[in-house]
Amino acid sequence: MLLRKYRENKEALKQIGREALAESRRMGLTISAKDRQNEAKDRAKRERNKDRAPATVR
């Protein structure tokens, strides 16, 4: 139960971070190198997961 809640909260915080970065870009603010690096890792991870078949299909 607690582990599930932790994962849900972790994903929610990641989404808030993505939205904050998008808003910063819209406002023309600078994005830190660390944020750009994290964003690239996140994008690559989503691309890899999109290519994989769901576990229920395997």
Automatic annotation (TrEMBL):
- Span list, region Disordered: 27-58
Q: From start to end residue, where is composition biased (Basic and acidic residues)?
A: 33-58
- Protein name according to UniProt: Uncharacterized protein
